[in-house]
């Protein structure tokens, strides 16, 4: 069961953008949870030079089935030309937590008042 889950990470240059990405993903049920970590110090190659920047990391908890849509949302809403989008498989985890992730990223339950 655990192989159906991933943690997806991205980084951005502001807490506000990180929070907006987190809210959009959770609101659209592409992630059950998104955590902001930061600020962090990043050092990387960009356009032939070594750069350093303060960034914020967002860690999304989701299912493999929702990864492509989550990656598209990050790409579409992110301010970077080439945003980090890395999915790390969940090898093991609490059955109760993983069940919750699956429930939160699945289709919404129908509203009985609208039936």
Automatic annotation (TrEMBL):
Where along the sequence do coiled-coil regions lie? none
Q: Which domain of life is it from?
A: Bacteria
**Classification via Pfam families:** CutA1 (PF03091)
**Which family, according to the similarity comment?**
Belongs to the CutA family.
- What is the name attached to this protein's record? Divalent-cation tolerance protein CutA
The species this protein belongs to is Actinomadura gamaensis
Q: Which gene encodes it?
A: cutA
């Amino acid at each position: 069961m655990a192989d159906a889950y991933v943690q997806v990470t991205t980084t951005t240059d502001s807490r506000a953008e990180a929070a907006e990405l987190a809210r959009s993903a959770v609101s659209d049920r592409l992630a059950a949870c998104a955590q902001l970590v930061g600020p962090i110090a990043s050092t990387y190659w960009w356009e032939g030079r070594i750069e350093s920047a303060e960034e914020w990391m967002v860690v999304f908890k989701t299912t493999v089935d929702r990864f492509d849509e989550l990656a598209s949302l990050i790409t579409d809403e992110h301010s970077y030309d080439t945003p980090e989008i890395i999915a790390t498989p969940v090898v093991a985890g609490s059955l109760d937590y993983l069940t919750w992730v699956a429930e939160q990223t699945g289709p919404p339950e129908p509203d009985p008042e609208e039936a």
